[in-house]
Amino acid sequence: MTIGDIETFLVVYDSRSLSQASKELFISPQGLAKAIQRMEKELSVVLFKRNNQGIVATSEADLFYRRMRPLLDSYNDTVDEMQNLGLSSVLRVRFTSGILSFLSLDFLTSFNEQYPNVDLLFDESPDSLIKQKLLAHECDLAIMSGPIKDDRISTSIFERIPIVAVVNEANPLASKASLSFSDLEGEKLALISHRSNTYRQFVRRLHASGVKPAIIYESDQLQFNHQRASMNNCIGQSFLSEANSFNYPGTVIVPFDDPSFTWNTYVCWNSDSPLNEAAMAFKKFAYSWLEGMGNELEMKM
To answer: Which end of the chain is more exposed for a tag (fewer CB within 10 A), N or C?
Structure first.
């Protein structure tokens, strides 16, 4: 007797009609009758008797039904669980430096709770390394800084965050409401690492303003730039979303007067590799999380 035989019996028992059961099972009434006869022969009992209204279940059929119904339900539940396990996957995600601090560690915890079958492997890396990993198919998805001008990488804008300057209070620029790029002429600078797209964006803006940048420090960690500014060694580069969280004494956060000077981040993947289900779930989750952060900010304001 097979699982299919048991399912057939249960349908017949529930419908008490061979013609109705045959429609549900997509087999002929004659074929269904033969299947029931095979089961009766194997069990050495009569399961159904005919009368003018159709068929009537015997006491043996009642017993068989009581035993088989929970057994089949348990079987189907087990199959579903095993199939879900089969959908489990490893998702490799890389983040540009600073983005996890912006999103908070709760972001990763919440994703793991919502998608327990996805084994999330993540790392923070410079943009140049993230690009290498994407093109080598060693990374499924990334959130990295733009601009990204490479047809081999597909992108979707994630967030735009103003870039700001961290200035020591002893520096005359600390009293300004905003800075132009020409204000940085002759100033020593601490920037995000040159392996970041944000670094290249900053340097291009300086060159376009006729400023020869005096970059004396680079770091993948924003905190380092704040620390250097507090020592009055230089002006540090930071992001508005993170700047106020460091709160180093003797420093002020000064915006740039160009509103387009922002830290642009993108969700990225290899154009040759369509996103799998886990990657699409992560992408959807990330945008939903970002929207929730915006709503919380509006409530606080």
So the answer is: C
